Amino acid sequence: MAADGSDDDRVAESSDDFVETYEFATEADVIDTTADADEDTQEGAVAGSFAPDVEVTPGTPTLENTLFVALGVYLSTLVLGQMVAGPGIYAPTTLATVTAAVVVGTAVCYALLTRTDPDT
């Protein structure tokens, strides 16, 4: 018997079953690269490329969006800090420092982004 099990009849039966249940690629699975060669394309996501009929305009962040981002930064800092520093990240002084840093950073960014003109 070979090391890969090729002499085993069960392997042969399962490989036949694989061929029968294999699904061929559909048109949605195939990426047409010839159509893109003729056009002047830009790499990456361009503003308005997903919904070209909707105009993309700059704006100031809302308080809700800012708090959501601040919560994400805070939780990410705690998780990454726990991975690096271990359970010492949950000491009261460390938690207070992380909380203060996130609050001050969020307040500065929010104040800066709400005071500046979106056209600049």
Account of the 3D structure:
It is a single chain. The termini are far apart. Among the domains are: 9-37, no CATH class; 63-115, no CATH class. The chain has helices at 9-21, 34-38, 63-85, 92-115. The radius of gyration is 27 Å and the shape is flat. With 120 residues, the chain is mainly alpha-helical. Helix 3 (63-85) runs antiparallel to helix 4 (92-115).
How are the secondary structure elements laid out?
Blueprint: H1 9-21, H2 34-38, H3 63-85, H4 92-115
Helix pairs in contact: 3-4
What order do the helices and strands follow? Answer: HHHH
CA radius of gyration is 27 Å
- Uncertain runs are none
Largest sheet: number of strands, sense, barrel closure: none
> Number of helical runs?
4
SS elements, strand count:
0
Choose one word for the global shape.
Answer: flat
Could you tell me how far the N terminus lies from the C terminus, measured between alpha carbons in angstroms? 73 Å
